[in-house]
Amino acid sequence: MITKSKLFSTILLLFTLMTLISSCQMSSEPLSRTGFYFDTIIEITIYDTNDMTILDECMNICDKYEKMLSSHVSDSDISIINKSKGNPVTVSDNTIELLNIALQYATLSNGAFDPTIGSVSSLWNFETEDHIIPDPVAISNALSHVNYNNILINDSQVTLKDTETKIELGAIAKGYIADMLKEYLISQNIKSGIINLGGNVLLIGSRPDGSNFNVGIQKPFGANQEVSATISAADKSIVSSGVYERYFEKDGKLYHHILDTSTGYPVDNGIYGITIISDSSVIGDALSTTCFILGLDKGMDLVEKTEGIEAMFITSDQEIHTSSGFDSYMLNRN
Q1: Which residue stretches of 83-166 are H helix?
Q2: What is the distance between the alpha carbons of residues 261 and 31, in angstroms, rounded to a whole number?
Q3: Any residues with CB less than 8 A from the CB of 96 and at least 6 apart, and which?
């Protein structure tokens, strides 16, 4: 999560990772609310009620977690940890929970996914037109502080072993927040709905008529609303990560926001995009980034070994590669 910017919100709106596809008339009129959180346009749609206060509370939940988890909100839990100079910091149970999930995937990927990438990611600027490639010495110095083992958790306290280590949870925070939103909506007896946080789509149940939702997967660098594939699902999380989400070009080279934790530069492995289907959005978020960094072969191997997970990789030649069970969700591919 990064500082809000009108330019960036426009870019994300034009190149949104996921496009919800309407294929038939809903059996009941939906309620929908949009907002601007996590530097993207979000939209929440529900079909079981005419009570707009439920959607008001959804916006409150987004605001709460953005202020708690964003490293760019000065008094968030994450910012306070980052400024702690090695002193223990007491944080919320939610922050502890998300940090533990991040550390789980950091361990699983042997650091390919690393929540301490903040010292490096802060050097890159994908928000404005003033794109500068960081100085190699600065990247090298920042990389020396990237190590998920620097995060120590003891009950509700977090300590950074390295005072220059910086936590950044942008790669998984939206997934966690989507799960929190779904939990709240289910508590309000919502049985049919769509949570769309940019590249994170979380489906609540099915359409009111019992049919699946159809979700389009944005074609990398394609026109707005142009999709590489359309999938059909109910009560699932669909998360995409791609080089086309935030990027710039300089001297004929593409620089994007998914950074290689071993080099400090954007991942360069021939992957343009990846979509994860799962039950939990935070798991989908973590795996979409992890598998993207691992690349096609290692990423697909991890997916096939993980129960309840399916994936679609799009390579730089726009070819689609799917896990063994992904095609059961596929309506069509373009």
Answers
A1: 93-108, 118-121, 136-143
A2: 41
A3: 153, 156, 158
pTM: 0.90
Q: Within 13 Å, how many C-alpha atoms sit on residue 220's CB side?
A: 23
Among 181, 194, 208, CA closest to 59 = 181
Beta-bridge partner residues of 87: none
User: Looking at this protein, which amino acid is placed at residue 108?
Assistant: L
Predicted confidence (pLDDT) per residue in 278-322, tens digit: 999 999 999 999 999 999 999 999 999 999 999 999 999 999 999
Question: For 26-39, how does the pLDDT look when each residue is reduced to its tens digit (9 = 90+)?
Answer: 445 899 999 999 88
Domains located in the chain, CATH noted: 6-67+174-333 (3.10.520.10), 74-160 (1.10.3980.10)
Residue with tokens 């710039």: 248
Contact present, 240 and 223 (Cβ < 8 Å): no
Q: Which positions ≥6 away from 138 have C-beta within 8 Å?
A: 123
Nearest to 52 by CA among 42, 63, 60: 60
Which amino acid is located at 20 in the chain? L
Measured CA to CA, the distance from residue 68 to residue 76 in angstroms comes to: 5
The answer to whether the beta carbons of residues 186 and 219 sit under 8 Å apart is: no
